[in-house]
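Loading example: each entry is read as two labelled lines plus one structure line.
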Amino acid sequence: MTSISDPAQPAFRLSMLVNDTRYRGITFQIIAFLAIVFFFGWLIWNATQNLAALGQDISFKFLGEQAGYDINQKLIPFVSTDTHLRAAMVGILNTLLVAFLGCITATIIGVVVGVLRLSKNWLLAKVMSVYVEIFRNVPVLIWILIIFSVMSNALPSPRDFRGDDASASMVLDMMAFTNRGVYVPAPVWEAGSGVVVAVFLASIIGILFLRRFATKLLYDTGRELPVLQLSLGLFFVPALIAYFVMGSPIGLDTPELKGFNFQGGLKVQGSLIALWWALALYTGAFIAENVRAGIMAVSKGQTEAAAALGMRPGKIMRLVILPQALRVIIPPLISQYLNLTKNSSLAAAIGYMDITGTLGGITLNQTGRSFEAVLLLMLFYLLISLAISGVMNLYNNAVKLKER
Amino acid sequence: MSQGDHSVAFVRHDPLPPQAPPVSQAGLIGWLRTNLFSSIGNSIMTLITLYVIYALLAAIVPWVANGVWDASSIRDCREQLQGVNAACWAVIEERWPQLVFGNYPPEHYGRAAIAFVLLFVALAPVLYFGLPRKMLWFTGLYPFLTYWLIWGGTLWIPVMALVGVVVGFLVFRVLEDKSFFGAMVAALAAAMAFWIVLTAPLADALASVLPLALTPVASREIGGFMINFILGTSGIALSLPLGILLALGRQSSLPIIKMICVVFIEFVRGVPLITLLFVASVMLAYFLPPGTNFDLMLRVIIMVTLFAAAYMAEAIRGGLAALPKGQYEAGDSLGLDYWQKMRLIVLPQALKISIPSIVNIAIGLFKDTTLVSIISMFDVIGMIRGPILSSTEWFGVYWELLGFAGVLFFVFCYGISQYSQWLERKLATDHR
């Protein structure tokens, strides 16, 4: 006879904490938790002992002290009498600047190379895969140093631009590539320029609305608007009209050779350009692989189905393949953007003053506050990483396949 | 009947011989037409690409080929070249020991070279399954042997470390039947106890009986490409098991374990490696008991391992998630416990799925070892930027040195990625 009633619950014994699957998990977790707490407690205890022995404390007051160093590449005004906090702000903006420029350039390079690697042209496809392999298999630090040595050694010095038989000349009479940096024209904002900028921003918003309207029209009626031409028109025409109506309020301040150096215009440090292009070319090679994988992930049947419906190749790419490939491409693309931002900390190697160069470099060395500086540095990168992945996840959710 | 023969005289007895395909469709011309000149746009692209290739080669090939191999300094190079723009390879000819070994004592280069060659012997059975399995014993011995060869000192310290591992393994075998996890913990504890309590006295005693020792070499004397290799191989080898544990922890149903793993992985993945290296070089000293002096190389190996482990964990998590749920359930229904299920059913399949990403992480880690030059360790980049470029003889020889380092990395990284593609094809069990 078998009993169908529940067997009597055995009384709780201590050994059940290890042997009984109902309790074992809890035991392990408590042990792990205690181990972690003890480990961190031990670290913190050591740290307080060590700091006390050195007569130091943890304090962020150093951020309010005078920095006492200059920064050559800055987006906001900074002089050496400003505080370390402001130096860190300049560094943060520089990091964001190079990350922004790098991400955009890397995306363009990656998409173009990724598509061309699938080209029917054998030679072109091979050249692109050589590019991808070369850049993927050599450390980014070496690329940064190579491009930086182009910028600082191979380019002519400002002196070479002087005289009638100068060995170097300015590009389009506007830009000068020198070993001290690249001089580009700077915009000069005069009265009325606000209107032009406002019109330009309004037309960009107009383009976004136009695209939405065009999509709706396509889905509702099947009629397709020439979106690209209309967008380009909207992009240029209103702003140009506003520009001339307001009497050309935006001028250009072109750099000029005065004495031994260029004056006027905007000076871009060679280190910024080196970091930007090295990161863009390096990350671009990785993005190219993602793009290629994404396009190849769209099954051939999709192309054939679209062709059977009578679509032309350009349209098949734009309306059928790309929207599906994007879903595959975007998650790895996000992590490439994150990698690029994190790799921008290699600025330290070439003296570009990003946050690692200011807060984690000169400030750290001058104040000796390694503890606080490294902590803040990590916090900053952590926040950036979380922000980028947060924004990109929102976008990813918007484009991902809606299932049941 | 003869009439019949005549009546069919116009019918051929043998078929026409096949005609050669049109010249435009076969052979070289056909290939060119389909692959390079299929349309006007394509032809233009081909011509532009050819021109770009020509321009690049025209700039690079003479520079490389006309380089000077025998000179004592950059000025000597320039004199020999007499205004021709070409490379000065003499710097590599003269400084290659520094690039490869750093400040390692020259009389002991042989030791480092043996360790390097033995690395391939040790890796062979791991990488190629066709080789005799007995070779894995050598792989197990390799880390201890290499430590002895590179750092020198008495042989008995690494031997005792190895004995500690054997003690741990024996404890594990004894307790294995009771509980896999419990045996692991006990084995770890036994090995630890052996290392901390018995290693130093036993090694001293044995050394006094049989003094087998090599000249000790300090960590700071190790440099050049050797550092990249030591950091890369030890980082990859140590981060894989740690990454597996982290991935399992992240998939675990125990909330606290899961939380610890998630926080660790996300934190490490959120910060650049360079900040972790800063921690290793300036901050870690604060967190250790007063008076402990930790070797910088060891600190960096720890940080690099933790860094790579977080990425490995994510790669392996991808493999775990890609495995059909039925596999987990099959393990449960066979009555396997958690560790048996993972070891025998889940991980072998999950790791196979994650091979491409694991290899990418390994390549990335190997490349990232160049970052230690920023915390003033003299790896190959640190050597180039420090002692070589700042010397009076070789001031300004950027291209040749950076190109040399780039080619070194390319050879190894490209080799690893080709291996992984071969492995993927070999392990592919789905019949597509």
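The beta strands of chain B are 153-154, 213-214.
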